[in-house]
Amino acid sequence: MARYSISDLEQLSGVKAHTIRIWEQRYNLLHPNRTATNIRTYGEADLRRLLNVATLCGRGQRISQVVRLSEEECQAAALALCNEVQPADCARINALQAAALDLDEPRLHHLLDEAISELGPEDAILRLGYPVLQRLSVSWKEGSLGVAQERLVAQLLRQELLASADALPLLPLATSDAPRWLLFLPEGEWHELALLFMNYALRARGQQVLYLGPNLALADVVAAAQAFRPTVLATVLTTVPARSHVAAYATALHQQCPEATVLLFGGLAVQATGLPEGCLQTACLHEFRDLIPFVNQEVGRELVEN
Question: What are the B12-binding domain coordinates in residue numbering (predicted)?
Answer without folding.
Answer: 178-306
